[in-house]
Amino acid sequence: MITYQFITALSDAKPQSHLIAPASCRHLPETSLVAEMRESTSIADTRFGCAPFARITLLPDALWQDSLTEGLLAALRPLLASPVSPEVILDVTDIDDVVLAQVLRFLFNQAHRLSDLQLKKTSDEVRLQRITALCLPEQQDRLAVIFRQQQAIAHGMVAVRRLADIPSDRCTPQFVVEEAQRLCTAFPALHCEVLNEKAIAEQGLGLLHAVGKGATCPPRLLAIHYDGVNDGPVRCYVGKGITFDTGGLWLKEGAGMYTMKYDMCGAANVLGLMLTVAELGLPVRIMGVLALAENAIGPDAMQPGTVATACNGTTVEINNTDAEGRLVLADAIAWASQRHPQARYIIDMATLTGAVVKALGYELSGLMTQDEPLRAALTLAGKQSGDEVWSLPLDARLKKQTDSAIADLCNTPTNNAAISASAAWLLHHFCPPAIPWAHLDISGTALWRESGRSVASGRPIPLLVEHLMGDL
User: Fold this and answer.
1) Which of 63, 220, 245, 370 could form a disulfide with 263 if both were Cys (CB 3.0 to 4.6 A apart)?
2) Helices (H) and strands (E) in the chain, counts
């Protein structure tokens, strides 16, 4: 666990720390080395002649106010890839609040590395252990709140990343359930409810059953309940948890299948959110639903043209078995709405469509909703957290995209148009109009991509916590 502390003078810092500050930092010693570093228009970094520090890094002042392009994070990533000290000193006397939140999450997320999975022989000689914040005395109380919140958010993100990075031959639906149960035991306010494959069938979750029945690892529905207060409306979060996606009989090509162990990031993020909320002790009631299945090929795999029935009685023609995420989400949304018909809202999240990446890139999550207050609140929370969303259209003009001749709906549009919005249009049929509902397509943001490699990012937990905090 990475800890933090506050200091108001560099003389209070631990020797041999890594000092990171803006070029205009007023606390630095006035040496010839520092003067030369200040003159740089880019990153100025030294490990020599900087005693009592192990390293000094001065970054351009503009980066400390740039919340849009994450320029400060881009500068920090290579510096922290191989830390020279277990302690970082960060000058936070003059930094934008959104940038600070982004940087803190990044630093606290250093608690997880792929090497922690112990699948590769590596030697991490130095790991970040403590963040020391250099601030003014009058800033300390306000900063203490920000640091605590971002540390809790990062803890949830780390839980997501550790789970999602595990290879799918081990990270099965049942494994996710057991890991969630293990993590939730640390918080008395959390308790888990599990539906196995028999209960899924008995409760009529025909879409989740259809997706999961082709795999040797059967599907699961996991509900995590959080009671931070005794009464009040329940906020519901639903996550797609496809622990591996072959595409089913609509088989993906090899290159498209490589990162499909991450197709459960939506569900993992629901778990991470619940852990963060419990750590913060927020005074709310929440139910998080993880729809878990492996989309496999085999004798029992669902076939194109199959018609399956959701737990709300809606029938869906499965004309593409590689559009399975919206099927498990649909059942989970309907199930959640039946459990809590007076829910304050239902928000689902999923690595649902590659089309949203083509539309929005890797920095923005796609937001689709017909509830304008929920849209406005999530958009604002995205800006305030630095974990932004962008709205895509969702209205009756998409109706033809889900028309079926044989069932109430079909799961993919036959014209291959408006893929992301069409999926959301399908999903909206499974949430009663009385409950505000929003869909987050996180195909671009759920992974961090660097040097041709993808790893889980833990987004959009920052967005969702910010939204929750604003909705208390």
Assistant:
1) 245
2) 14, 19
Distance CA 322, CA 355 (A): 14
CA distance 459 to 444: 10
173-184 vs 140-165: helix crossing angle, rounded to 10: 150
| Nearest partner of 293 among 198, 349, 215, 191, judged by Cα | 215
Q: From the CB of residue 102, how many other CB atoms can be counted at a distance below 10 Å? A: 22
Prediction pTM value = 0.96
Q: Are strands 453-456 and 447-450 parallel, antiparallel or unpaired?
A: antiparallel
How far, in Å, CA of 195 to CA of 201, rounded? 9
**373: DSSP letter:** H
| Nearest alpha-carbon partner for 2 in 119, 118, 105 | 105
* Catalytic residue flag (residue 326): yes
User: CB of 220 within 8 A of CB of 203?
Assistant: no
Distance CA 383, CA 183 (A): 30
443-469, pLDDT tens digit by residue? 999 999 877 788 999 999 999 999 999
Q: What is the pLDDT of residue 31?
A: 86
CA 214 – CA 105 distance, rounded (Å): 39
Asked whether the beta carbons of 304 and 320 are under 8 A apart, the reply is yes
Q: Which residues contact 20 (CB under 8 A, 6 or more apart)?
A: 57, 59, 76, 79, 88, 89, 90, 91
Task: Could you list the beta-strand ranges (E) of 351-394.
Answer: 365-369, 389-391
CA pair distance 374, 380, nearest whole angstrom: 10
Alpha carbon of residue 40 to chain centroid: 36
CA 131 to centroid of chain Cα atoms:
23
Residues in the chain with pLDDT values less than 70? none
Is 400 annotated in the active site?
no
Catalytic residue among 220, 326, 375, 459: 326
Report the Cα–Cα distance between both ends of the chain, in Å, rounded. 28
The sign of the dihedral angle between the CA atoms of 195, 211, 371, 157 is positive
pLDDT tens by residue, 103-161: 999 999 999 998 889 898 877 778 999 999 999 999 999 999 999 999 999 999 999 99
Residues 14, 252, 339, 344: which is the catalytic one?
252
